[in-house]
Amino acid sequence: MNGVTDEQFEDYLTEAWKNIPAHFKFEMQNVIIRIEMNATPEQVQRAHVHSQGGTLLGLFDGIPKPQWGQAMNGEQPSKISIFQEPIIANARDEQQLKNLIKEVLMHEIAHYFGYNDQEMCVLDAKLRQKLQKEDLPNE
Asked: What's the pTM value of the predicted model, to 2 decimals?
């Protein structure tokens, strides 16, 4: 998909954030969400993307909330990176782009809450089904 401006992408991410349930947003502490054009080689290596055979669309970098302890004082915030160029490259139209941004954001937030990749496969499949149903025209 071509022609998506940085501002449009940011608007779509803002829209996706607004759709995150309030109780999850309330529980999110010490985490920032950033749009980056592409993953760095270090981020790709840390995410083991080559061994997974995929493209890195987003990354949670930090300590998952369930692992927080008393020693968290002074820790740098966790970061959720949303990688704009590969997300746009994987979308064929505007609705798929919006859905993909929402899916990546929710996936990385789930990592923040401590879900591992195996658990995420199940959650991602359920989310894709839900998003596809939302896209069906009303009859």
From this structure: 0.80
